[in-house]
Fold this protein.
Amino acid sequence: MDVFDKCSMNMGPLGQYADQTEGYFMFPKLEGEIGNKMLFKGKERLIWSLNNYLGLANHPEVRKADADAAAKYGMAYPMGARMMSGQSDLHEQLERELAAFVGREAAYLLNYGYQGMISVINSMVDRKDVIVYDSEAHACIIDGMRLHFGKRFVYPHNNIDNLEIQLRRASKMTEQTGGGILVITEGVYGMSGDLGKLDEIVALKKKFNFRLLVDDAHGFGTMGKTGAGTDEHFGVQKEVDLYFGTFAKSMAGIGGFIAGDKKVIKYLMYNMRSQIFAKSLPMPMVIGALKRLDLIRTRPEIREKLWTIVHALQNGLKEAGLDIGHTQSPVTPVMLSGGVGEATQITFDLREHYGIFCSIVSYPVVPKGVILLRLIPTASHTLDDVSYTIKAFKEVKEKLDNKVYSEKMAEV
Ligand SMILES: Cc1ncc(COP(=O)(O)O)c(C=O)c1O
């Protein structure tokens, strides 16, 4: 057997559909300036699929800061990994400002959120330690755990009674190994929009000895009174031991950071292999992130605009009889009943007839019979966008209930 045989015989769970889906459902190309309206296949569409929560991707001050930094430094500086030759005052300044913003002693930059998270987990635990994690944890958390030589226990999504059971098992185990326990949850779950129950999780610290790592990719910049994240929303910043944020969503950039106590961040600086052995973030990303952070801190009206759109969209969808699950964040899932065929027809209808572009998920990512359309409201949307979309979704649901899509499937 040739290792390349799988490329034609077994393309994997997503790749198996490549012939039917590529370019439309998967790897679609959105063109034009990033915003509420963009081009897809040459036509303007209303876009609800970008995690550009605060609309900073195309903010004039952000664009200028990025462009000026690129003109001054190019994309190469500083060369090398932070530890070897890629350190700079501005990298350190960004870390100080991020730490202060999220209420921690220190922070360290990560070149990509995904790899960074893998490395945070990998460096925080050894074979004596036990990880306890939520069953809906993001792929980067799962990959981080794959590098873990010790035990891990999973609790069903947000089931705190079960988390307690897993913590009891984990404590028994660490009594034998002499290790510690790391609990990992997300702040905002990116598909369903519900929040990790950080208040209930930290309450368990009274009964069990563990450290808590929160992946707040979707919460940083959107949640909490100042936008400092889901732990600020719950008022538990002191009890969340390690806080992870990415620049890829609210900050509309690339990279991320981990924040916590000074001594822990120092330890991570010297142990995170994905950062020690990889090139440092280029200067335009660092200067661009400083600008974005400044806007998040000083222009609360941007976040207020986001939440105006979120509330209008979520209340309107609910009033129109649509099921948006239990979201408590900007992430807005719309749940419909149907199979892959109906999901395909709905996507065509939304994109081609209504000019609405959103992400769609069907079996096997969600249970059989469920279609999840995910809308990401942003500060760059308007209330007109919202009312148009609510009307469209109401009509789509009526068509689904009246079997219009299953009849279309029969015609194909
Ligand atoms: C929950 C969560 N964690 C981590 C990441 C990875 O972040 P990045 O895109 O910065 O690599 C994502 C991005 O999709 C995410 O949703």
